[in-house]
Amino acid sequence: MIKRKFDGEIIWLVKENDPFMPKEIRQVNISGEDSFRELATARVIVNNVKGDINFKKRDGQLYIQTWHAGFSPKLLEKDAAVTLPKSY
Question: Rounded distance, CA 46 to CA 65, Å?
Fold first, then answer.
């Protein structure tokens, strides 16, 4: 996104600041109040962790889930439906 000159601010929700994060990315504490505002106002949210993120996707907001599997085969969402909470 940085190399392609993404037209927008790139924000990464983190547990603690990473000194090796590119300077073009603004880090926000995932457990802080600012994270709620960032999730609520983002045009695009990219998530690579299966789990509950405490936000409601609003109309027009794009949510991209890029699950990754470390030690088990990746399931398609339909195949994993029985393990997902109803809120998903």
Answer: 6
List pLDDT tens digits, range 24-55: 999 999 988 999 999 999 999 988 876 667 77
What is d(CA 22, CA 71) in angstroms, rounded to the nearest whole number? Answer: 28
Predicted TM-score of the model (pTM): 0.68
**Residue 28 — left, alpha, or beta (φ > 0 → left; ψ -120 to 50 → alpha)?**
beta
- Pick the closest to residue 39 from 59, 15, 24, 57 (CA basis): 57
d(CA 52, CA 7): 28
Most distant CA pair in the chain, distance? 41
Rounded to 5°, the CA angle 38-23-32 comes to 30
